[in-house]
Amino acid sequence: MQVGGNDPPISVLGLDHWFGTGDGRKQAIWDVNLTVAKGSLTVLMGPSGSGKTTVLTLMGCLREVQKGSVRLLGAELNGASAAQAVALRRRLGFIFQAHNLHESLTATQNVLMGLEVHGRGCAAQQRRAAHHALSLVGLADRFDYLPSNLSGGQKQRVAVARALVSNPEIVFADEPTAALDRDSGRNVVEMLKALGRVRGTTTVMVTHDNRVLELADRIVTLEEGRIVNDDGAGPAAR
Ligand code: ADP
Ligand code: MG
């Protein structure tokens, strides 16, 4: 595992992936190549079953790389140890379609869960960080609300705050706007885009949502496990 200062945050080369074993073994990802620029917002799109989530989870160190190379924040994931994977995941933020909030915890307490694995700072500092993250997503007046008292859009913004509270270098989001109305969905994506400008946070997002595509710096389309279109391929993307 080598660290290179000027490496792009994500670089995927010749990535293949299979599910199942024996006769049931089936190739789901075929020769995916993708280099993602720091601070950019990349959208992965394509029909259901085209491999978007598989590619996202491989890049996000949530799934073991079987063949090919995934370099994430300067580290090679193919052959990385479990300890290396854990250390890398601490530098990432994840947002999923279902917000997965704990119903018995307030907005602030849910966001604090995003710091639990980090163990950084004292309780007061962590609380300040959680409030800052909630303010960032426009929920400064909802710190002590339970999820049941928040709208769908507000809940998803709590999930975004939870992903961002640790200042991740890369955010991986899988259909984060699927459950949101047009304005809330756009809001969430605009927030991620602003973080790219302000903090250099890199975002890779799976979405079918035509409403947010215009905010993407780059759109990569998958079909049947292959990249069939990439409007950012070539020198301009690097
Ligand atoms: P998408 O996110 O684009 O809908 P996925 O990455 O979830 O697509 O799935 C890509 C392909 O891999 C599909 O054919 C799917 O059935 C298969 N697949 C995904 N996850 C698994 C799994 N855990 N076991 C077996 N096959 C899977
Ligand atoms: Mg999916």
Describe the structure.
With 238 residues, the chain is α/β, with parallel strands linked by helices. The chain has 7 helices and 10 strands. It has one domain (37-61, 92-237): Rossmann fold (3-Layer(aba) Sandwich). A 6-stranded mixed beta sheet has the order 6-7-8-3-9-10, with helices on both faces. It has a 4-stranded antiparallel beta sheet with strand order 2-1-4-5, covered by helices on one side. The protein is globular, with a radius of gyration of 18 Å.
Provide key terms for this protein:
7 helices; six-stranded mixed β-sheet; binds adenosine-5'-diphosphate; 25% strand; Rossmann fold; single chain
Summarize the structure.
The protein has 238 residues and is of the alpha/beta class.
Tell me the total number of β-strands. 10
**Sheet with most strands: strand arrangement:** 6-7-8-3-9-10
What is the level 1 CATH name?
A: Alpha Beta
Distance between the termini: 22 Å
* Largest sheet data: 6 strands, mixed
Element layout with pairings:
Blueprint lengths: L9 E10 L6 E11 L4 E5 L6 H8 L7 E6 L2 E2 L5 H8 L2 E4 L11 H10 L6 H14 L15 H13 L5 E5 L7 H18 L2 E5 L3 H4 L4 E6 L2 E5 L8
Parallel strand pairs: 3-8, 3-9, 6-7, 7-8
Antiparallel strand pairs: 1-2, 1-4, 4-5, 9-10
Helix pairs in contact: 3-4, 3-5, 4-5
